[in-house]
Protein: Membrane-bound O-acyltransferase family protein
Organism: Flavobacterium hibernum
Amino acid sequence: MITIDSINNWFVQNFGEITLEQAKSWFIYNPEEKLLFNTGLFLGLFLVFYFVYAFLRKTFYLRLTYVILFSLFFYYKSSGIYFLLLLLSSVVDYGLSQIIYKATKDSTKKIYLVISVILNLGLLGYFKYMNFMIVTFNDMFHGNYQLHDVFLPVGISFYTFQSMSYIIEIYREEIKPTKNYIEYLFFVSFFPQLVAGPIVRAKDFLPQIYQKLNLTKQDVNNALFLIIGGLIKKTVISNYISINFVDRVFDTPMNYTSFENLMASYGYAIQIYCDFSGYSDMAIGIALLLGFKLPANFRTPYKSTSITDFWRRWHISLSTWLKDFLYISIGGNREGTFAGFLFPSLFFFGLLLWGISNVAESYIPLGIAIGAIVLFSLTFLLSKKKHQTLVTNFNLFTTMLLGGLWHGAGAQFIVWGALHGLALAVHKIFMEFFPSKKEGKGPNFLWRFFSILITFHFVVFCWIFFRARDFETAIQVINNIGQLTFEPEHWQAIVIGYKNVFLLMLFGYVWHFLPEVITSKMKFVFDKTPLIGKAIILGFVYWIVYATAVAGSQPFIYFQF
């Protein structure tokens, strides 16, 4: 018979005695132990939180306030005292949104919108790009300005973009402001997606606040399925691959063989997918348990048949935000603007200078620079609608450049964005010449297979810049891969040495490329499993998380953005 004493004895044997210091650590910020979805601490705190939440489900402001307090605590455990920055930002944006909504003159609305954008981007710029700008200035003008000791608050890019979307949608008269600050703060600080998305649009989320909570059995099934899948992706696949292989190779690529560099690139591709989509799955699942539906953020992106298709499947909430609030704002496919032409021009000018400065060592950089400029130029010179395509491609390139810079302050992120921008422009002109190959027009199996293969390898190539700590390291990895020779016996020895890593990589890729009919059947079986069975599965997964934890819980990759 199971008794309280037997449960207590089991707990003590497995986890040890709980001391007062341990209990305090649960509620005090520790930069080495952030509160992550894949930790036992979060599970314990969430169960207590959810128990109280269930009793408050029929209230409104009390329930909102309760979730806000837990959200602020959640952010405090991630960024310490910088949760006050979130509060300060929310107070300012809420006040400006009220002024914009009540203003009668368009000029007044525009002035306060510009103030809001400057404040938000200024705040983001200081914490995320100050040292990058200092280093760039020192390099260009031989300055000697000292770097600032700047702490980067977790997820500042995400909640900044979310807050900006709220104000812009009010300015565009797409939504009305919330009735009070509590409702707005609930929207901005909602903890499931606060630190790493999905980026939620106000017009999609705010109506749900006012609806009566209605958590169905199917919602619970969907939520648990997402949470379990997300935990496996993040902890079992992503963490293990990262710690035991990918990080080692990318930290010192010259210490590893060409084959190991190549496999680390493939490893990072599945690592970042499992890490970020795993977090998104957990965030969507937890929000669903609270009665809120967040948008899907990933749709098996490595099945994409083109780079355009990839951006419809990868980080959907960000790509949609960039399209609606950046691409369209600088002219979209309608008109050219100063900003739309400025950033691509600066990039290609800088690329040309890089090529010229390396001529003494090699002509390859200059060839790459000239080739990129010619290729981009051909994407609109060969078009039947030259002016419109020129405008579209420049605005698209600007969007991807700034999207790359949003991910990180470094030349490697700018190059990553530029590669995607160039590929999108090339794909557009390809579709103009071969309209029969557009997605959805039923390409044959062979064409689809090679389209997916080429797109996947281009994306993996771009991930090298994204993962490398700097541009030089990315070039080292690429050079190493370029020296690959066919040595099956040597490859076999490496595969055997990293067999667990490669098995998990294979498992991750097989899971990703499973046909939808199989994943649907898996979901159907899970839905039919009794609730106690689902609880056992979830508990088992958390046990796996606990058992496979290596060197502490690993932060989610997108926390740094």
Remarks:
- The chain has three domains: 29-213, 214-302+470-553, 306-442.
- Residues 29-213 form one domain.
- The chain has a mean pLDDT of 86.
